[in-house]
Amino acid sequence: MDDQTASSQEHRKKYELRLFVFLIVFLFPILSVAIVGGYGFIVWMSQILMGPPGPPG
User: Fold this and answer.
1) How many contiguous H segments (helices) and E segments (strands) does the chain have?
2) How far apart are CA 54 and CA 10, in angstroms?
3) What is the pLDDT of residue 1?
4) Rounded to two decimals, what is the model's pTM?
């Protein structure tokens, strides 16, 4: 039983390490680029529809 528990804990540690690396290396950079790009697209589209910011000419 002790052997199985140790093996299970080792497997879980490997899984958590892989998950952590995936989150840090892939998911967070992709999400940050998507969020910033989405915000830029919204600003760009709003300026196309409503004109540039500033006082009316």
Assistant:
1) 2, 0
2) 60
3) 53
4) 0.68
